Amino acid sequence: MKYLIQKINDHSQWDNLVSKSLNNNIFLKSYYLMPLEEKVDFYIIKKTSKIIAGFALLRDKKKNIINNDLVIHSGIFFLPDDQMKSSSFNNQVFEVTDLFKDFLIKNYNNINITLSPGINDIRSFQWHNYNTNKKKFKINIKYTSFLDLKKINKENYHKSKLYLNLNENRKRNLKDASKNKISFIEEKPLTFVKNYSLMFKKKGEIITSKKKIQIEKLLKNLIKLKKAKIITSIVKGNKEYTIAISWDDKKGYYLFGSPIKNLTNFSGTATMWKCMDICKENKIDIFDLEGINSPLRGAYKLSYGGELVNYYNLQINR
């Protein structure tokens, strides 16, 4: 057989492979997934003895691949190979993706998986059961926005390319925040979860106890590893807005955000800018706003002037 799929139990090796991959993101890392206490299967794909790809899957007891909305991306990643011609590498990506798809169909029942940005060749999923009446994959296109933190000039924010690309409302928000002497503190996970839950309650939505526990454990673990912070803004003695961010070795990520009192119209923007500044201090070049998949959220996040990036959600029920 040309390719071989094997389970991997060494989480350190797994995280290192993800970091080296073309599709590196924190949602594939074991230190992000394990605190959630979901059933996760980790696999590598070899060509002869060389590891060329891998994939992570969240599943339930009935061997259905599931989506947990705390895990934005899962599925396959590819390792680069500078020795291969681009034509050969592209063909290998197609073949391995087809192998991955067949593995899912053979070993799992219902499938709901959201791939990482950069997984662009999904023809194998489009062509599954092609020209038949059998069930096919439903393909949903999703979007996020990447901000280039290299464009922040800490010596002069107002001349930074990132600042100049903000829309006028965001610029006005930052100026108002400065005039009102906004300040920031680091919040604890339990306090964050309480504020986050309250926001949903005010909207008539309930966060389950399981999800609250997952968020708290996740944030505690990431903070312990020095890969996350919870930033809360304060204006005139009032806690206004709170955002949880994380980062790995390459990118920063907006995870969760919530107004607290939010008596001003500038605290959310200022808190987001502070979070980007923290990622910049941690030598991170890209900040992923993670999801612009509803009209209001899309308009707000795109007002920061980032790059629109698409990714795919794949579903089939059998």
Q: How much β-strand is present in the residues?
A: 25-35%
Strand order of the largest sheet: 5-12-6-11-10-9-8-7
CATH topology of the largest domain: Aminopeptidase
Structural class based on helices, strands and sheet pairing: alpha+beta
List the helices and strands in order: EHHEEEHEHEHHEHHEEEHEHE
Total E-strand runs: 12
What's the alpha carbon Rg, rounded to whole Å? Answer: 21 Å
Architecture of the largest domain in CATH? 3-Layer(aba) Sandwich
Tell me the helix content. Answer: 25-40%
For the biggest sheet, the summary is: 8 strands, mixed
Distance between the termini: 28 Å
What is the arithmetic mean of pLDDT? 95
Secondary-structure topology with pairs:
Elements: E1 3-7, H1 11-20, H2 30-33, E2 39-47, E3 50-59, E4 75-78, H3 86-107, E5 111-114, H4 123-126, E6 138-148, H5 161-164, H6 168-179, E7 183-186, H7 189-202, H8 209-224, E8 228-235, E9 238-247, E10 251-259, H9 267-281, E11 286-288, H10 295-302, E12 307-316
Helix pairs in contact: 6-9, 7-8
Question: Can you walk through the features of this model?
Answer:
The structure is a single chain. This protein is α+β, with helices and mostly antiparallel strands and about 325 residues long. It folds into 2 domains: about 5-135, Aminopeptidase; about 145-310, Aminopeptidase (3-Layer(aba) Sandwich), CATH 3.40.630. It is about 35% helix and about 25% strand. The strands form 2 sheets. The chain has an 8-stranded mixed sheet with strand order 5-12-6-11-10-9-8-7. The protein has a 4-stranded antiparallel sheet with strand order 1-2-3-4, with helices on both faces. Helix 7 runs antiparallel to helix 8. It is globular, with a radius of gyration of 21 Å. The mean pLDDT is about 95.
